[in-house]
């Protein structure tokens, strides 16, 4: 009984504050298209990896169904504006031991039905670190893994921006 009253009070309190778990998207937005992001960097194919991660994040979240542009209620346009690899740690001989990959994107989510911009967000940035390995090929492979990790984080951040903005 006491737990039920507490739950009811919590629901009323949250409802009174305007809190919602549905996000701020207009009710008619049920689908989203994610065209391949533009690549404004010198890193080849980074836009494909980031776009794929964003599509995956929307699909996993389930709030918006990813469709092609002609069927979409909203379209998310993006551009990868920065890709950088920076040394962040060194061993006692001053050799790099740890790198950081940083990926930055700009976004615009457009409401196709009403021809309006739902949001514009510049410089969404994520990062991932990777250690230097003895073989250069292993280090390159770890950089690619770090890039995939940063792209996955960007995808999740973008879905949070699009679906649960307050």
Describe the structure.
The model is unreliable at 2-22 (pLDDT under 50). The two termini are 33 Å apart. With 166 residues, the chain is an alpha/beta fold. The protein has helices at residues 2-16, 46-61, 136-163, and strands at residues 31-33, 38-39, 65-66, 74-90, 96-111, 116-131. It is elongated. Helix 2 crosses helix 3 (136-163). The longest helix is centred in the last third of the chain and has 28 residues, at 136-163. A hairpin with a 5-residue loop joins strand 4 and strand 5 (96-111). It contains three helices and six strands, in the order H-E-E-H-E-E-E-E-H. The chain has a single domain (26-163), classed as Lipoprotein like domain (Double Stranded RNA Binding Domain, 2-Layer Sandwich). Strands 1, 2, 3, 4, 5 and 6 form a six-stranded mixed β-sheet that branches.
């Amino acid at each position: 009984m006491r737990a039920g009253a507490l739950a009811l009070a919590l629901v009323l309190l949250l409802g009174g504050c305007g809190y919602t778990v549905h996000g701020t998207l207009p009710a008619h937005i049920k689908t989203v298209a994610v065209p391949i992001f533009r690549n404004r960097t010198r890193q080849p194919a980074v836009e494909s990896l980031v776009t794929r991660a964003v599509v995956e994040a929307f699909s996993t979240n389930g709030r918006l169904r990813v469709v092609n542009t002609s069927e979409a209620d909203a379209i998310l346009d993006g551009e990868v504006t920065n890709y950088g690899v920076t040394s962040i740690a060194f061993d006692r001989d001053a050799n790099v031991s740890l790198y950081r990959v940083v990926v930055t994107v700009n976004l615009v989510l457009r409401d196709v039905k009403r021809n309006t911009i739902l949001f514009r967000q510049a410089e969404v940035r994520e990062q991932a670190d990777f250690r230097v390995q003895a073989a250069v090929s292993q280090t390159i492979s770890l950089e690619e893994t770090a890039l995939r990790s940063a792209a996955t984080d960007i995808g999740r951040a973008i879905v949070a921006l699009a679906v649960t903005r307050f």
